Amino acid sequence: MNFFKNKIVYVFLFAVGNIFFSAAQNFKASDPIPVNETVKKGILPNGMTYYIYPTTVNKNTASYYIIQNVGSILENDQQKGLAHFLEHMAFNGTKNFEGKGILNTLQKQGAVFGKNINAYTSTDETVYNLDNIPSKDGSVVDTCLLVLHDWSNFLSLTDEEIDAERGVITEEWRTRQNAGQRIYNQLSPFYYNNCLYAERAPIGDMDIVKNFQYKALRDFYKDWYRPDLQAIAIVGDIDAKEIEAKIKKLFADIPAPKNPKKRFEIAIPENSTPTFKLALDKEVSSTGITYMIRHTAEKPTTTFEDLEKEVQRRIAFSLINNRLSEMAQKQECSFKKAQISYQRYSRLNDVFYLSVSPKPNEQAAAFTAVMNEWERACKFGFSDGEIERAVIENSSRYENYLEKINEISHKSVIGMIKSDYLKHEPISDPKAEFEMVKVILNNLDSTILQKKINEVYVADNRVVTVTGVETEDNLTQDQAFDIIKKAENNSNLQPYVDTFVNKSLMDGVDLKTGKIVSEKKTTEIDATTYVLSNGVKVHYKFADKNKNDVKLKAESFGGISLYNPKDYPSVSRATNLAMMSGIGSLSSNDLDKVLKGNTANASVDIDNLTESVSASANVKDIETMMQLVYLRFMKPRFDEDKFALLKQRMENGLKNKENDIRSKMGDSLTYAVYGKNNPKIRIMDQQYIDDLSFDKIKSVYQDRFSDIANFEFYIVGDVTPDVLKPLLEKYIASIARIERKENFKDNTVDWASDKIDKDIFIEMGTPKSSVRIRYQNDYSFSQKNKIIASFLGDILKLRFTESLREKEGGTYGAHVDSGLSKLPKPQVWLSIFFDCDANKVEQLLPIVYQEMDKIKNGEIVKEDLEKTRANFLKSRADNKNFNSYSMDQTYLFFKNKYNIDDPKNYENIVNAITEKDIQDFANSFLNKAKSYEVVYKPLL
Asked: Which residue intervals define the domain Peptidase M16 C-terminal in the entry (predicted)?
């Protein structure tokens, strides 16, 4: 059933009014779910499994994975962290790729480490990936298969490379040691009832990581990296028969293990007495409650009976979560959000999982409210209207999935393959499974759904955990168990009342249809511009790289820049309130229900320089999309109750803000760069919230979206002119105009100084230093300069990876961002950020500037330039596979007057960039730029 688990879709419906399928087949409980024949699966003589899935969703590329049925759960007490350490070592030398050979080889093909080349380790699996690598050069395909081959059985694991990686992993641990991780460390013994899972976090024990003997790592590799615990998967634009032949030949030399260790699995121990744990951390700023009931894992979904149980259960839980979501939209609700689910938890255990995010100091009330809602569903079930809407919603998703089955992403396919290999969940045939689902839906009713949720709510194996805040009234064990008991015995509960009355989106709307007064072809990009009777220009381009997909963008200059800083809170929240309030005659909750099963959506935004509308839909729902766009302009809603809720949410976010280290760092950086009392800079504080005005929000929105003639529209997708044009006349041409000319203002805020160098000391739960460096200056805008600016950032990232990470072991990774923007005035920037050991920061900072000086001096590694060039060209070729590229082409052509598809505007520039270009740019930019270096250090 994996094909649809990954999409969370399970049903398809032809008739909405009655859940009835006259042509439904009859299935026996034991009938198997047919397997998807597109996936070719086999097992080699040495026990290795392979999967091959041909697809052209990304033309001329393929993805290569090796899935290891091996994780940190297999470590002994002296190996904690070695499963993860071994993952790192896979990139540090193999039989056929010495040192950084894998990275160097694939980066020349345009792949990027961390994006296209990566891996992860969990408790039960380790997965390596090479994503979207060019597949039409046979030698590149052979190289990728050889990498998988070496990862399987031929890691070098040299003493030198092991020692070099110890620091990198220590810094990865340091980067990840935030309040959330420390809370999890306190709670995991309760989640897992003190079994081995609680002791085998993949990152491991840093004392072991820093000091283990080389043999310990090699022993782990020898014991567990073996073909009977490995699967390889190749997905992409490939010849399946050719790939299969290559696999059989190349992987034949990997020996089958002799007397292998048993790959054991851990079941979480049973407990009849409920357990409870409150976890605290000084850096926690918001609370959370979880209530879990562990179960023995169910067998894989392979038969009609299994599928029936899964579909029924998932629909039931979705209905409960719809109720909880609707409750959270009310100001008086005691929780910010809540969710209840039943899911796989570990290899041998499933879990009923209830989670609550209470509002400050309302933990008991929030837990009570969610428990009562759960019990309401258990006792009374669901209304016909709820069930019908859920079926319609999931039906639409299923239908859309089948329509776009040839566009399933590589990662989605890999997800199904992983479930098949690791969890024995077969990859089903979607059309055949659909026949089974029709029968399931034909028999669906509230009694069945009610039974499914009651089945998983049992008395044993219960645990409640609370993430608390030291200054709040945190939920106690007695309170938690008393709330559960009272909810289970609450005789005052009444059935859920479904008050929704279905309406049309356009109820009460008097459309005054307009006309298309002219149309003009632009042959350069094969687009058409329609001018409407209300003055709107609509730039349209047909694109069917994504079938049935249509996207709309409308934009006008102005935005926040036209307002005074005192009004910034209201201006920046205007579209938030409008989206929260609904549209036309419909509240936000009613709008959600009206749109169940519809793919159309439309959102609004007010940015610094622009106001905009974004919308999308499948072709069958394009009229609904147009209606939503019309209503966002002509019939916005502003609900005072939602305004109160918006303010409440912001005020709740302020409470305990002083505990949140990220907020401290963000605010202190703002003060360092712009000064503490700069009137043009608004940070989130009580004054910001006090300056919010309902009337101002309403007037700002109405002002920004009052003149349709000031907007330009861009519509791109799989829609023909004969379908589109009548809809433009009916909906877009009918929007009112006032014919004003507006532009943005340059509201750039000056820094406090052109050179800022500041250390900021902060109390930290896990001591570390965080470095923030930025260079910025005015600069002449051109396509070449824009591309060179990005080249500079990518080359520096390669340098920092080699120097700061690999050579020094000083950081898990340095993030680099560089670019050139055109508006409000042409500016170039370079930003650098990394975490490190506080005791090493003064050692690492000079290296940052040395690498920049090398580039300014012309000491540019030619290989870095070629890797960057290859990545830019590969990324551009990949982007052309999707309709989004056509939208970018249309937008940039009419907005900025250039064609991104013309080689002279991109490929020719990228191919011609030299080391001298990078050097000259770095000098002209960096030598004149203003800069800041802000270093956060632990308060001792």
From this structure: 212-391, 692-871
